[in-house]
Amino acid sequence: MEKLDHDTEESKKESPPEAGVLHTVRTKVFEQRGLLAAFLASLCFALQTVWVKLMKDAMPVVEVVCIRFALQGMFSLMFGMFTKMSILPDSKREMALLAARGSLGTIAIGLIYFAVYNMSAGLVNTIVFGAPVFVGILAWIFLKERFYCCDAILMAVDILGIVLIAQPPFLFSSESWSDSKKMELFGAIAAFCAMLLAASTAILIRLMGLMGTSAIKIVFYYSIIGTLLPVIIGIIMGDWVLPQCGTMRFLLVGIGFMNFAAQSLSRMRLLSPSSHTSPQL
Prior knowledge:
The protein is mostly helical. It has eleven helices and no strands. Its main location: membrane.
């Protein structure tokens, strides 16, 4: 016994101090995994927004949205099959929430891509990622979360910032009603509507998180609805083109993969019991 105690004490003395530091770092990262997932998701969303901007003169918005969701659905289905995860809804209420999340999210993505086509991608992201302010009101109404006075102040500041970004000519006399200005104004309105829809989808995802719905299941049904709706709209409009070989097709695959990664990361964060409600598309 004395020999064993002696060996244990020697092993403790011989253990390098870096081991304790690495253990502390791993513990801190695990505790803040929600924040890390949100950061990585935002990075993926930013990359796909830039790539969508590069597709402006090559393909219509409806087709980009359709291919984006088709690839995202393929990646989610492959992941679900690899992990043997069930993708069937557990109840009618869950199916209704999945359908509502998919419909609102698809419309929001279409509006965002339209805005990116007609104004700066950075300004579009600035508007859309102001959605957490509006999530506070919806969370207060539907999830019974607290809504503070500072949230109302932030909402007013956010709306003021959107007005300053759009600079409508009826408020800014220095601006003229040129065609480019009209399209930029329409893009700002589309981004604002997308922000409201993003706030609504965050509440739906949080409700499904309370029900125990997996992140992959949410992404999969979101992808199915996001593929079917643009197909119907594209057939009605007759606005379809074949993607060019080379760079354009690689960009489309990259957009689909980045969205799958961003969706999975953001859902993991929102479904975490300790997470704060925030929107991701």
